[in-house]
Predict the structure of Phosphogluconate dehydratase.
Amino acid sequence: MKLNHVVTRVTDRICERSEKTRNAYLKLMRVAASKGPHRSHLSCGNLAHAAAACDAVAKKRLAEGVCPNIGIVTAHNDMLSAHQPLGAYPDVIKAALGEIGATGQIAGGVPAMCDGVTQGQPGMDLSLFSRDVIAMATAVSLSHNVFDGALMLGVCDKIVPGMFIGGARFGHLPILFLPAGPMTSGLENNEKARVRQLHAEGKVGRDALLRAESESYHSPGTCTFYGTANSNQMMMEAMGLHVPGSAFVNPGTPLREAIVRKTALQAASVTALGNTYIPFCHVVDERAIVNAMVGLHATGGSTNHTIHLVAMARACGIVIDWDDFSALSDVTPLLARIYPNGMADVNRFHAAGGLGFVIRELLDAGLMHEDVTTVMGKGLRRFAAEPHLENGAFGWRSPPARSGDGETLRPAQNPFSKTGGLRILKGNLGRAVIKVSAVEPKKRTLAAPAIVFRSQQELIDRFRAGELNRNFVAVVPFQGPKANGMPELHRLTPPLAVLQEKGFKVALITDGRMSGASGKVAAAIHVTPEAVDGGAIGKLRDGDMIRLDAQAGVLTTDADLNGRQMLAHKLDPDHWGTGRELFAGFRALVGPAETGAMTVNLDADRG
């Protein structure tokens, strides 16, 4: 199938825009690769330290330097359901490597915080910055230079992007990603959403809400809605950084263990010590990044990746922007309806055909680059498959010819929508992102007066007091990266959804983020420039008329903001407590959301 002309045009302009930084990055990787296995350059004392805790067999193999040594970077902890299963993986990986004469070592751990735990809490102000902490922790883990390849064990929101950014600086190594898979299905998402709204209205108590939440999040594994964590896994497949089909196989199953083993063996088979060398920097190029963006649109993925994927690309010398997302959205059909864009969870999506089905459909429609390099070799078509076990043997088979559930997954010729799930808004209020796949078409356009809130809690309090029963646009400024770390404002969805269901026309505008699970209400998020940078959002006042039109891509106000003073706002309370004072340097250095909200500059020419 000939590649879609818009996909071609966007890819070409990304290549042109990125020429200088991409070449500088690749030069850096070539220099690193030219030195050969770094272990061979270590002194005897260095090597002795690196092998001191190994058994005799592994010590001998490391000293000889002729077999691959795979570094394991892990986000394991036993508080997060998504990362708890990762604790068992290193032993499985090392055993598999040992069978082929290779070795594996846990290179280091990275922090892994849970947005589900910190939603609406002070700790959420650390969430976005944790991505760059994870990137640095990944770099520290690999800095010992004793590894011929690496495995990244992580799943959730900031963890995978952080590992990706850190790993990219060691892009001369083969790097494979390995998730834990989703927990089994619990309480249906529509029922969970119903109880949340009833609680927001005061119609059920905390005990009913806790019971519903606990029945939803109930066992080891990733949360089953299609938020940022599961969007991460889709992107790793679309970029060819997984063993095919790794994303949505449940933990604790024979198939999941087989995937862990295969991932370890694949990492060892593509190092510079063998005949097939596939470094990370050859896998992740402009085409792979475009494939990830297309995958996000086709599946209704998380808005968070209009920040994270930008940062991930820049770590590889590739410069993308929101206009690229917008152009690709216009030609990418929406193939999946997974909560919050529908009622199905990822287990149901996987059973209906899953990512193998989606990738095949997008390739056949000419919407993904097929001629890319993946960790499996040449060509993305290998990922249009699903893993399986037959008589104990691991392998792949073709995805079903037809979707097993037309309410959850559809072919490219009969999509849920002809365009993707994300849109870019522009106007005199700046630039913003909106997720339209979860919003009914009639609710994507609104003109109403603003009500400005100083915090997420103020909106909730005024809702509970019955003060918001009217048409309005909720404006929540000073929530951007420089202001307070750009927390997710997920708690705003239930009260706004209640007002919308009462018949009021409501929308949200903020320079903060919403959860990857947000939906129902039109929300213009990531508004750039943010209020702290002098953005117009910080000059709005109650009563200013605002027009939000997701169909036309418009975000404007009729108010004359010229000469108007910025809204007074005290930021100090958001900068202290729960460790937030330690991140003052991050707030001072962070860039805008559209350039990835990064705290380091990876664009500088090192050539």
